[in-house]
Amino acid sequence: MARTFFACSVAGLCIALAGAAAAQDILIGQVSSRTSPTLAANSNALYTGINVYFDYVNQGGGIGGRKVVLVNTDDELKPAKMVELTGQFIADKKVLALAGYQNTGGINEISKQDIPAKAGIAMIAPFQGDRAIVGKTNFFPFRSGYPDEVTALVKEAQFTGKKKIVVVYQNTSFGPPMMKLVQEQSKQMGLNVVDYVMIDPSKPDQVVIRDAVASIDKHAPDGVIVLVGGRWVWELVKQIKSKSELDGTQLYLLSIVPPQDLVKAVGEQKARGIVISQVVPYPFSATLPLVGEYQKMMKQYAPDEPLSFASLEGFVVGKITVEALKRAGPKPTREKVLKALLSMGELNLGGVYVNYSTQARKGWGTVDLTVIGPGGKLLR
Questions:
Q1: For the range 304-308, what are the long-range contacts, defined as Cβ-Cβ under 8 Å and sequence gap of 24 or more?
Q2: Using H for helix, E for strand and C for coil, what is the string for 248-278?
Q3: What pLDDT digit, counting tens, does each position of 49-96 carry?
Q4: Which residues are paired to 54 by β-bridges?
């Protein structure tokens, strides 16, 4: 199916391009960097998943005879640019909702400025697990929060009898509050955390990673919980695994780390056994109706694209968005879409539920743990 892709890098360009779309199309705005080396894998998969569901809906006649079109723009991982591009979407009244945003810094800035609330537009299922961010007005989350992931990793380390844990955390975004959560939970669960190592973005990457690995090495831990995302992860894991005395150390990572990129960066053998928390249902086994539907539509509309957590998350983003558009009536507007979401209540996506109302907006709220196995495959 044909798809619409807008790469807006100049102020006002997005609006001009959107204006070139068919007048009757329903536009959904998304800001995510499909060109960034650190986000490309997740971003492209997320984009694919949303479009697979939109393609399915459009083939069936769309919404009231109108096609649903995803307008994707690239912020180059710059928070200010995400804010700028969002302003362009808001200026174009044909954009009825924002969905599938990706880039923690940018989403945080949009949340801080309360942009969706001020503009009267919905922010549907951003790729973000920080409840302090997605708890703001007009945010409708899907993925579980970072606290849920951290809790699951701490429980796993304690359950498997780890004797000495080091926590590595980034000194930005979710890093500090999640580090404090580990401090609290490790005491409650009796998990021995011997050090908390900070990744300081103000220092050169080579220096900060070298120092972090040296700090880990001196403790000879049997487990390392990594509360880090983005560019630091690959080199951190690579250097830990390059040390023979640390090669057998169990690593625990968050869902924001794309496993396929991790395997490429460190090699299949070194990556084997790494535990990664997941905030989206397991996409490789159709144990849930949602996953069966996703697999069937991926095969039909994107047969050359691999199944992944990110594309399944995109599929869910598309599904929630379409449901809101349908409930908004024959002539949906931003206001009607927002009202539909706030009155949606519990929505069954196929054995997976979200619950949105004026009182609370709750996503799936479940965390699974996966491990990288033979061939780089993720196993449950």
A1: 305/45, 305/48, 307/283, 308/45, 308/260, 308/283
A2: CCEEEECCCCCHHHHHHHHCHHHHCCCEEEE
A3: 999 999 999 999 999 999 999 999 999 989 999 999 999 999 999 999
A4: none
Extract the tokens encoding 42: 């997740």
Q: Check: CATH 3.40.50.2300 for 13-143+286-365?
A: yes
b/e per residue 84-116 (b: at least 16 CB within 10 A)? bbbebbbebebbbbbbbbbbbbbbbbbbeeebb
d(Cα 217, Cα 293) in Å, to the nearest integer? Answer: 46
Distance set, CA 222 to CA 153, 170, 217, 245, 345 (Å): 14, 21, 11, 10, 44
CA-wise closest residue to 278 among 124, 177, 148, 185: 148
pTM: 0.87
How does strand 139-140 pair with strand 123-124? parallel
pLDDT for position 285: 92
Q: Is the dihedral of CA 83, 135, 254, 323 positive or negative?
A: negative
User: Which residue type is seen at 301?
Assistant: Y
Asked whether 227 and 254 are in contact (CB, 8 A), the reply is yes
Query: In this structure, which CATH number among 3.40.50.2300, 3.40.50.150, 2.60.210.10, 1.10.3720.10 belongs to the domain 146-278?
Result: 3.40.50.2300
